[in-house]
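Hey, can you fold this?
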Amino acid sequence: MAAKILSEAESSKGDLWVFGYGSLMWRPGFEFIEQVPARLIGEHRALCVYSFDHRGTPEKPGLVLGLDRGGACRGIAFRVMAKQRKYTVEYLRSREQTTNVYREVMRSVWLENEARQRVSALAYVVDRGHVQYAGRLSLTEQLRHVLQGHGRSGNNRDYVLSTVASIEKQGFRDQQLHQLAAMLHDDSALHLHPPLKTEDK
């Protein structure tokens, strides 16, 4: 199934808002003039995308975040100047759409600033019909994929822990991701401090 791409009419007016909920929160990679904590209603953040590129390979897939149906998601809305709009969209497509697992859509997000205004923001929503859609995996399955995942953007563990650190910096928690982060910390402790072997008498 081809990924949805916004038409010129949908993506060419005035300043552009971009909603970040994963790595875009801590590594946006584009110029912006404002960033505001924001909430998107109707979809939630989930480790529901097998990564064959940035954080894994087809042989050893990692797991990355997508916006999946239902609930709500807190993240960051970035405002991009109108003159940077075209370049920013092209950059995001080259970064997010390497395997077309996301649908590029405009979503209403509520800015958590004094005005509490609603804006229309560019967001990347998982395509449930794509081969890389992982669905709802158990924490054990998530841990296995994250530990094995390594792609051109680095290892999967760093991706999860950086996202959790960004969430904490904004003053909230994501229960599933925080549970996984705790398991990743425990796992690294086991690798750093293997049990001592007793010598044979």
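Oh, and this one too while you're at it.
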Amino acid sequence: MKEYLFTTVLETRDYECDVQGVVNNANYQHYLEYTRHKWLQSRGQSFRQWHEQGIDAMVSEINIKYRNPLHGQEEFLSCLNLRREGARFIFEQDIYRKQDLKLCVQATVTIVSVVNGRLGRGDEIAFLLES
């Protein structure tokens, strides 16, 4: 497993599974988003706080590669790294099954900054890249 800026442990729930007994693909987006929120909270920030200041960080693109399935009641590690490319913030997010550290999901999530309703350069949230 590579190094990450942030890692959190989560657990799947039975109702998230499809008829094959594996977590339905759509639920992974929830896990990825929740991880971004938890990371931001660990930095003393929140998306709600930003919104109240007129700053909205919005997903503009997401690419998910499903490698190995998770099943109900399995713990997993949800990890992220972050980089900036111009006005875009790129979250590289991976999910590993905790039991055997098998890679389950690889995702790239692109975020843009909207300030007072207008697309911005992201300078208002660039501090996120500081250690």
